[in-house]
Amino acid sequence: MEQAFTGTRHGVTETSRQPSRWLDMMLSLLYPNPHQSSPIKFKTAATAIAILAVILAFYAPLRTAITRQISRPSSHLAATTPFKRTMTTTNTNGTTSPLKITKRPWNARGHADHGWLYTFHTFSFASYYDPQYENFGPLRVINEDRVERSTGFGTHSHAEFLIWSYIVQGELEHKDSMGNLEKLRRGEVQFTSAGTGIRHSEYCRNREEDVHFLQIWAKPSVRGLKPSYKTRKYTDEMKQDRLLRVMESVGRHSGKDEETEPIPMHADLSMSASILSPGKKVEHELVAEGKRNVYLHVVMSERTQPKTGGARIKIGQEELGEGDGAFVRGAVGPGKIEVESVGDKPAEFLLFDMGQ
User: Fold this and answer.
1) Does domain 75-354 have CATH number 3.40.190.10?
2) Which regions span the lipid bilayer (predicted)?
3) Residues 6 or more apart from 29 whose CB is under 8 A from it?
4) Structure confidence by residue, pLDDT tens digits, 75-102
């Protein structure tokens, strides 16, 4: 096992590790080295396990280091250094603003395979922790989940979060303490403003098909809200070769409660969705004046990114494949950002525009 310290490599702060001699000794009790000249031996491995358990119980820093080590991606999903590029966006007054684009590769995200749940975390979540990826503006969680048929998340609580699920494939049942019960399918977005507190469960009741969805959380701009719930369906046709606004800040929302309108929420954040054909381009017009953050996420079609082909989009000089994301900093509104589909199949992606 190793002790953590902070260092810098290639200009990127990361967690490095130094070996702990005494901990190596403890591990050697479990796995003695036959080539040692005088190995330490116990009568049973159970004795060594008991000693290690006592140390973990009273040494919190070590326990934290072990937890983080266990939660790191497996070797074939090992984290990679983010790619950074600079481009410009055109403002409506004809001037340009420099943009810094940082790619978040699909296999650099937190990852867990629990059997019934196969998930990727863009930001720190559950046992995955990376201080570089706590949030981006009000955006706190983007989990790309695959839940096996006849399984799901049991009843649990939330408070002071805006939570929504974007269904990619399959069927997700939502049930909550506000009395809502419905089955969500592709194209539907289910939104909950947890406010002062709610309890809900999410299950894949379908016995023939798993469910693939993105669950997204954001911090509200107002605390103590009364819990609320809304579901809307945005078909593939509505998103075809255009950016369709799906979520919008209440301050910019039209106030109309129509099926084609975005879902309003209490945060300086908008989310648009697109299914962009190869060779097509779309322009996103920044939703507010002043400095903005933008994040893009390409939806995966399989559990891993295709080694060749697949859906790909391009922003500036940066290409994103399935599961990849990009942090865009330095955008200033009013202005526009262009996204192009450069893969060999339509690219489904989400674009978040938010305050800093």
Assistant:
1) no
2) 42-62
3) 40, 42, 45, 47, 48, 51, 52
4) 344 444 455 555 555 555 555 668 999 9
